[in-house]
Amino acid sequence: MKVHIMTDLEGPAGVNGRGDGIGNKIINTETACKCLVEEVNACCEGLVEAGATEIVVWDGHGGSNSIDIRLLHPAASLGILGGGLAPVCCYDGCDAAIQLGAHAMQGVRDGFMNHSFNSHGIAELRLNGEPVGEIGIGMLLAAHFGVPTILVSGDVAACREAEAFAGAGLCTVATKQALSRYKVINRPLEGLYAELRAVSANALRNLKQAPLQKIAPSYELIYRAMCPNLADAFERAGIERLDYQTLRFRSGSIVDLWAQACGWAPGVHNRKFNIQ
Ligand SMILES: [Zn+2]
Questions:
Q1: Distance from Cα 7 to the centre of ligand 1, integer Å
Q2: Count of helix runs (H) and strand runs (E) in the chain
Q3: Which end of the chain is less congested by CB atoms within 10 angstroms, N or C?
Q4: How far is CA 224 from CA 162, 166, 227, in A?
Q5: Entry pTM
Q6: Is residue 231 part of a domain?
Q7: Distance from the CA of 62 to the center of ligand 1, in angstroms?
Q8: Which of 141-145, 166-170, 215-219 is modeled with the greatest confidence?
Q9: What is the pLDDT of residue 82?
Q10: What's the pLDDT score for residue 232?
Q11: Pair 204, 225 in one domain
Q12: 101 alpha carbon to ligand 1 midpoint, in Å?
C-alpha cells in the first residue's frame, strides 16, 4: 500500500507565528520544522504497522524547506514541490492520502495562522459557491485520482473544516486549540504522537471503508485576491475577471481548475500531463 502524505507547517503542535503586516510569518522555524517531522514520523510508524509499503512525504509548506530528510522516518521518501512545469499533484499509484500540519482557511477566527495558500495574496476562495481552503482542495485533487484522504491533522479548526468537507469516515487528530490567529494552546507532545500513531494505523487498516471526497463537475472557483496586481496577472493570462480583485476560474476537471489557479492557461496542464 502506497500512502501520499502532504505536510504543512502551520498545523503541528509547537509552532509559533505572528502577523507580518499583511499575512503570516512563522517565528520559530527551526523548532517548528522539528515538531513537524516528529508528527510525520509518528504517523509513518502507524502506517508501517498497518502495512504501508511505500510512503511519500511531500514537503508542502512554501518552498518545500520544512523537512530535514536526515530526520525523516526511514520508510518514507521525501517529495519536494518544485516549480516550473511540474504537475500540480502526484497521486499516481497511491492508495491513500493524508494531510499533516494542516490549517484552516483564511478568515476562520479560531484557526491558527489561518490562510488559504497565500496569506499575502488570497482573501477568499469559493468553490461552486462554498468557501474552500487548502484542506478541501487537497482532498479533491487526491480524489480525482481515486485516492481517498483518510486522515487530517492540524489545530481544532483545521480538523473541524476537514470533517465538514469530507463528511463521515475521515479520521482527524487535533494538535492544538487556537484562541485567535496567533494565540494557541498546544497539546502535550507525548500523548499527541501516540494518538497520531494509533489513528494513522487505524485509518489505513480501515482504508476499504474510506469514502472518496469527490464532488461532481463542473467546477467554478471564485478567487478574491487581496491585491489587484494579482488579478491583473490572471486577467493577462486569459482568466475571467469579475471585478477589480475577483476572478472566476471554470473547468470540468478539478485538476485543471487548480492548475489554472496556479497560473496555467485553461486546459494546458491536463493536456501536457495527460490527465483526463
Ligand atoms: Zn498552508
A1: 8
A2: 7, 15
A3: C
A4: 22, 24, 9
A5: 0.97
A6: yes
A7: 8
A8: 141-145
A9: 83
A10: 96
A11: no
A12: 8
Residues spanned by the domain of 248: 219-272
Cell reading at 191: 500523548
Contact 142, 4 (CB under 8 A): yes
Alpha carbon of 56 to ligand 1 centroid (Å) = 18
CA of 47 to the centre of ligand 1 (A): 23
Task: Say if residue 239 is in the same domain as residue 189.
Answer: no
Q: Is the peptide bond before 218 cis (omega within 30 degrees of 0)?
A: yes
Instruction: Kindly give the distance from the C-alpha atom of residue 136 to the centroid of ligand 1, in angstroms, as a whole number.
Output: 12
Provide the pLDDT for residue 83: 80
26 CA → ligand 1 middle, Å: 12
pLDDT of residue 276: 87
For residue 197, report the distance from its CA to the centre of ligand 1, in Å. Answer: 23
Q: Cα of 231 to ligand 1 centre, how many Å?
A: 21
Residue where one domain finishes, among candidates 162, 191, 209: 209
Ligand 1 center from residue 108 Cα (angstroms): 14
If 0-12 CB within 10 Å is exposed, 13-18 middle and 19+ buried, where does residue 104 land?
buried
147 with 226, same domain: the answer is no
Pair 253, 163 in one domain? no
Which amino acid would we find at residue 17? G
- 60 Cα–ligand 1 center, Å: 7
Last residue within a domain, chosen from 158, 174, 209: 209
Any domain includes 214: no
On whether both 241 and 198 belong to a single domain, the answer is no
3-state DSSP assignment of residue 77: strand
